[in-house]
Amino acid sequence: MNKPTSGDFTKTTGWLDWYDGPTKPRFQVPPGGVDAHCHVFGPGAQFPYAPERKYTPCDASKQQLYALRDHLGFARNVVVQATCHGADNRAMVDALVHSGGKARGVATVKRSISDAELQQLHAAGVRGVRFNFVKRLVDFTPKDELMEIAARIAPLGWHVVIYFEAVDLPELWDFFTALPTTVVVDHMGRPDVSKPVDGPEFELFVKFMREYPNVWSKVSCPERLSLKGPTALDGERAAYRDVVPFAKRIVENFPDRVLWGTDWPHPNLKDHMPDDGLLVDFIPHIATTPEQQQKLLVINPMRLYWPEESR
Ligand code: 0GY
User: Taking the complete model, does pTM exceed 0.85, yes or no?
Assistant: First the structure.
């Protein structure tokens, strides 16, 4: 991969020996912008990875995450519990409580969690739980257990984040549409972008959002969905072009229910390490007006994660 250059960020991270770090984006994130999907991993010596994990990541610390936030021009983060930590939320909670109020979180919990533990997560800044249906990442959890968890977190004002592959949406439809709170879909339900944007697969996802006003979507992770990769066209900083029509369609149709995040530190991407600066430069291709950008990056995530601060 080509090595993007960057400023101080590179020298402070020690992130990957062969990767210099993200470039500075050309797109200026509006003031108060929220990176609404990112993770912390470990450090494993302090916060061990789950025995049942399907992958072991590099350590990726809260200090690195917050340095990236500043480098890219974001003001806040939503730290999402990743499967490699299972239902042990300590690393994510540690990141939240050391963020100076600038991070909120999404946890993974089991049915055995007590009300007092849920309250502790709330006090730390957790505002949602994540249900993961991507088979390479997790073992199956019975739907009645998940529905029980959803019923317990809904009264706290929390939402459910769901992660699944597009081919699995028909089978999961009845469960998703019965969830009793706001539902946030990771990465547009992972469409196959080699299929038409107006074909039956993506139409079903659009129908999901159209018919269920409690459903939101992260228009994130072009680097996971793209078949073309980060190839820049004509010297432009334009990458992951094949994902643009999908994300743009969702932003245009549901401007008040979309979120965006870097997905740093990009677990399980084996072919290339995404340049987060380039990912930020993807934003104006999918949210093309200042109004859409303000909703995507500021108004919507503030409404969901910091409602007490949003008007
Ligand atoms: C993501 C995507 C992935 C991993 C996880 O929790 C996780 O381990 O979500 C993936 O491998 O697609 O959003 O971080």
Answer: yes
